[in-house]
Amino acid sequence: MKEQNLHIRGDIIMVIIGVIMFLMAGRLYSLQVLTEEYAGEARKYSRKRKPVIPPRGNLYNRYGQIFVSNTAMFDLAITPNELEIPDPALLCSLLEITESELEAAIKKAQAAPNKEHIIARYIDPVLYGILQENLWNFSGISFNVSNRRTYHQRVGANFLGYISEVNDADIDASGGYFRSGDLKGKSGIESSYEEVLHGQKGEMELLKDNYGREVGSYAEGRFDKQAIKGADLLLSIDSDLQAFGEFLMQNKKGSIVAIEPSSGEILAFVSAPAYDPQMLTGREVGRNWRRLSRDSLQPLFNRPLMATYPPGSIYKTALALAALNEGVIDERTSYRCGGGFWRNKGKPGCRMHPHPLRIDGAIKWSCNSYFAATYMDYLNHSQYENVYQSFGNWEKYMVELGLGTKLHVDLPYEGRGLLPSVERYDRIYGKDRWGATNIISNAIGQGEILMTPLQMANLVAIIANRGYYYAPHFVKGQRPPGKNDFASTNDLATDRIQTSIDRKHFNTVADAMEQVVATGTARRAFLSDVVICGKTGTVENPHGEDHATFIAFAPKDNPRIAIAVVIENSGGGGGRWAAPTAALMIEKYLKREIKEKTFELKRVSEANFLE
């Protein structure tokens, strides 16, 4: 009986223990699974979700060769509420920053103490390994994988642009995509195509130890969301031609813009002085930006896109086309010169050359008197009721030829130049108190008209095409992740923009431009086996030597390149410096090497107009 009682007692004790264990298991299940408050609290201290920034899309030149790619790097981030730095001096020495800079970064981050804040970017793999070895007892510090732009040809900084950390306005405008510390394109192609280049963010869940340090992936990454790389872009740029143009423009201020007339694709876009695009990526970007922005030569100023100049005598081609189409002049119309426009007391003046001239000779010798007479007869022509009507008609043609208007190139901050208006002259001279003699300098590109180098190149592309153009653009294709081929993105080039000027008048002007190079003011641009059609210009500069301008296209039939060159403070007119520069670019593009213009290559590349 006694043994039976003991057995019963044992059974009761086992039941009680079982009940207690069941209740404890239930409570634990409730706390860990059913009660979200405690589950969330547990996750807070055991794991965290972290965004994964995808690699930016690569950039390729027009021949499919890699131009800009990414190099894997690391960013160091801190979370203020978890931060413990036993040895600040060690951290600062490894990051090559001062302790005051570290303190300032921590203080700034404390505005959001539970979030990560990047305090050091572009840490290379070697330094990353050193940091990992030395910071094992630091808490609240983590590393994010990032990418630095790498330039395989260190040219084209002015159109490629750069990437930099987002500001509050970027974050607000991104619809939730960007957050503090993210990078985005700030200028150039990097900015224009930011949405396709930056890809789609991913997210990963990480485990943390009791010091708040990341110790690995949670659940072997089963709950992670993969980042999607940005799309690659196929550019229209001939990177070898771009490099050659930057070489020619060393020690100079100015621009070279080259366009394929049949497509509007930009082949070269040189802004001088240039700078190495690698300067604005990596750990020295802030210091380099400040140095470039303070440079008196303004290397950050994108001259082909934003600088404006009186076009000088290259403008005479535009006036000739408008006047021919309106019947103000024809191919047989001639005017006398004799060193100046004597209907306006010899102003503008002109160099001595054979005269009287018809339109072909006037373009060949760049006769100021001829075009002053043309402009005066245009504005005073009997087919118009008054100068307001004739001026409006002239203005219409100029807009068709791309003056005073944006061409909608796929870069930000495009300048529109200046095409003077009736309202402008009414403000200057008074309503009904001005006429052709007041604005006669427009006839030779020395008045109020201002053009960007891009507009100059587009003007000559219109002449090359005999009356139309496609919007100039840099990007000709996109390749989404996982695809092998680029899909065309030439939406800009699908719309052919046609002028109302008869094709025969473009042929007249092109014939005359052929003579400019063959026997006229641009003989330094002559190539024996390529017919180049061009027009020189000299821009008066009240602050120093005159600027030189030149526009050209080649070959004359089925043109493959249209080009504009501006060289500031060079003196000597467009034929002396701008014309041979254009010829060298044309020879390089069409033949891939310089054989005929070797003398000009040495002469132009060694010229220094910055001293």
Describe this structure in words.
The chain is α+β, with helices and mostly antiparallel strands. The protein folds into three domains: 33 residues; 146 residues, Penicillin-binding protein 2a (Domain 2) (Alpha-Beta Complex), CATH 3.90.1310; 348 residues, Beta-lactamase (3-Layer(aba) Sandwich), CATH 3.40.710.10. Helix 10 runs antiparallel to helix 20, helix 13 crosses helix 15 and helix 14 packs across helix 19. The longest helix is centred in the N-terminal third of the chain and has 33 residues. The mean pLDDT is 90.
Structural class: alpha+beta
Number of strand segments: 19
Q: Supply Rg.
A: 34 Å
What is the number of domains? 3
CATH architecture of the largest domain: 3-Layer(aba) Sandwich
Q: Identify low-pLDDT runs.
A: none
Q: Which fold does the CATH topology of the largest domain refer to?
A: Beta-lactamase
CATH homologous superfamily designation of the largest domain: DD-peptidase/beta-lactamase superfamily
Number of helices: 21
Overall helicity? 25-40%
Mean pLDDT: 90
Which percent band covers the strand fraction?
15-25%
Return the CATH class of the largest domain.
Alpha Beta
Gross morphology:
elongated
Gap between N and C termini, in Å? Answer: 120 Å
Largest pleated sheet: 7 strands, mixed
